[in-house]
Amino acid sequence: MVSRELTGDDGRDGPGAGPGPGPAESGTEGGLDGEVFVRWLRLAADEVERAADRLTELDSAIGDADHGGNMRRGFQAVREGLAEDGPRSPGAVLTTAGRTLVSTVGGASGPLYGTLLRRAGKALGDAERVPGAELARALRAGVDAVAQLGGAAPGDKTMLDALVPAVDALEKSGGTDFGAARTAAEEGAAATEPLRARKGRASYLGERSIGHRDPGATSSALLIAALDRAVYGDTEGDD
Amino acid sequence: MAGSTSGETAGASGRVGVVLVSHSAQVADSVAALAAALAGVPDAPVVGAGGLPDGELGTSADLITEAAHRVDGGAGVALLVDLGSAVLTVKALLAEGDELPEPARLVNAPLVEGAIAAVVAAAGGGDLDAVAAAAEEAYDYRKV
User: Fold this and answer.
1) C-alpha of A190 from chain center
2) pLDDT tens digits for range B7-57
3) A70 touching chain B per CB within 8 A
4) Which segments constitute the PTS EIIA type-4 domain (chain B) (predicted)?
5) B74 Rama class: left (phi>0) / alpha (psi -120 to 50) / beta
6) B89 has a chain A CB within 8 A of its CB
């Protein structure tokens, strides 16, 4: 109901037309349109590309040294999928990307990130614009689904250690402060270093998993950073 | 699609299909061959879905989906998995709702012993509950 109302009826503009306020100003006020979500995923693909070697390096310490390559493959496929199709609703952008990740990543991060995006996308429905508060709720649904799928909780040294604080921060600000979400995710990822892994291959290492930053929490922080950039109007290639 | 061709053959069988998911194609296919041999029928309803399409180690949602449709005989599909991304990928596919044949079930069982039990049960005409129960019982086979 709320989203319908805020969707209003000014969504008749073509894909490229942008008569309203610039993205930076629109921030979250008029709601986020599909373009913001497309931009988010493109920026995420950029971030993943840039960080792929580092992700693999982190993963070689406590995992099976494939996180960078897997994420790169998945997000490249997402990028290609976005290029093929025309503009879509925020929910559709996320569900499609989630499905792509499930089928292309090849490691545990595929179903996990795929579930995050798909579940969030489903929660957004087919609204053309979504208010920030609604995105926060959708991300919460996505993060809850990830926790359920992996049977993990914050503190287990997983991607949840970045995602949960990020969504907490976003919710606390009523869906307006994406910078706070980004900071919370980055701090959460850094805070996985002294933790002992309780899920996945790293958990077999027991004590020896301590002292290494979790690769999944690190890539999750990249995803949230990309969201922050997308909402505030950053475009691909900017650095 | 690969699924439709052999799906016709299997479709006539009315038996439960078994899909074995491993990070390794060799593991999945070898365990499938082992279970099929022990089932003692020429066309045991079991297929492996191991590794990535390019042969690398990993889990491929596409290979799993394709294998499930290929082995589906109209009586349901039981999926047995090794660990990590294999578990998560099958769970994610099940949550999706429209990717796998209906009904499809992730069975809580050890891969090798569970596969043998499941395939023997499926080849003998057991329904999905019976196949799943046989596979799950494999956890109780004490070795010492």
Assistant:
1) 17
2) 334 444 699 999 999 999 999 999 999 999 999 998 999 999 999 999 999
3) yes
4) 15-144
5) left
6) yes
Q: How many CB pairs under 8 A join A and B?
A: 51
Q: Decide if B85 and A108 are in contact by the 8 Å CB cutoff.
A: yes
3-state SS, one letter per residue, for A204-221 = HHHHHHCCCCCHHHHHHH
Chain B residues near residue A118 by CB distance under 8 angstroms: 96
Burial class of A86 by CB neighbour count within 10 A (0 to 12, 13 to 18, 19+): exposed
Q: Do A149 and B95 touch (CB under 8 A)?
A: yes
Among A66, A103, A108, beta carbon nearest to B88? A108
Tell me the nearest-neighbour CA distance from A151 into chain B, angstroms. Answer: 10
Residue of B nearest to A149 (CA): B88
Strands B17-22 and A32-33: unpaired
pLDDT digits (tens, 9 = 90+) for A20-74: 343 444 456 679 999 999 999 999 999 999 999 999 999 999 988 999 999 999 9
Select from A99, A103, A200 the Cβ nearest to the Cβ of B84.
A200
pLDDT tens, residue by residue, A162-214:
999 999 999 999 999 999 999 999 999 999 999 999 998 899 898 999 999 99
**Residue whose structure tokens are 């099940």:** B94
Assembly ipTM? 0.81
Instruction: Indicate the domain borders of chain A.
Output: 32-231
Minimum Cα–Cα distance from B86: chain A residue = A108
Q: Residue B142 falls within a domain, yes or no?
A: no
> Does B144 map to a domain?
no
Element spanning B47, H or E: strand B46-50
Contact A106 B85 (CB under 8 A): yes
Contact A102 B89 (CB under 8 A): yes
The CATH code of domain A32-231 reads: 1.25.40.340
Q: B118: domain CATH number?
A: 3.40.50.510
Q: Report if residue B12 sits inside a domain.
A: yes
Range of the domain at B116: 2-137
What residues of chain B lie within 8 A of the CB of A106, using their CB? Answer: 52, 56, 58-60, 85
Quote the number of domains for chain B. 1
Q: What is the rounded distance in angstroms from the CA atom of residue B54 to the CA atom of residue B58? A: 10
Please give the structure tokens belonging to residue B70: 């290929």
